[in-house]
Design a protein that fits this description.
The protein is an alpha/beta fold. The protein is built from 8 helices and 11 strands. Helix 5 runs parallel beside helix 7 and helix 6 runs antiparallel to helix 7.
Amino acid sequence: MEKKRIIIKLSGEALSNGNNKAIDPEKVRVIAKEVVDAYNLGGLEIGIIVGGGNIWRGKIAAEMGMERSSADYMGMIATILNALALQNAIEELGVETRTMTSLNIPQVAEPYIRRKAISNLEKGRIVIFGGGTGNPYFSTDTTSALRAAEIGANIILMAKNGTDGVYNKDPRKHKDAVKYDELTHHEVLDQGLQVMDSTASALCKDNGIKIVVFDMNTKGNIKRVASGEKIGTLIY
């Protein structure tokens, strides 16, 4: 049976408790368990992109007067820290995992090589991609789209921290906000819905990569969306 290859996009904030712990071990274990539950469905090859916002944010860099490139490289390093934490938690649950980084840190992780990443997936390993694209000025959203295109994944599962889909306006600020069940990539770009940055959206559109936006804080949602259950918002 041919396996379905997917990318799961996690925010860095999902690994934090929101207070004084940038990486909360309990939150990391919960996410790892959710990912492994999806893996245990069978028939899936799973790649993961995790952000770094729990450790380093552009706002801090701006307050320090730091130039953009240096700030972005610090953000890439933050994503590697998160990737290693998540790798350890997943492996504690018995699933072989590899962290691959676009920045060359051979002492702690494999360098990202497309064919090697595909080989790891085909061997049944979960692959976590750290370090962004390896270039400043690109977000982890763009990394998700780029890696999906490179490894042949046709869907990105975009796990949101407390938001259950795409709305016409911010549901936390507007009670009359309307949730979309489905959208086209063209509609997302045309309406400026900011599901992901415009570079990532255009890359998904051009390569026919679907996106499902869903709330990861509901227990079991990663497994549900990975199995094809219709939750959140589908972008195609």
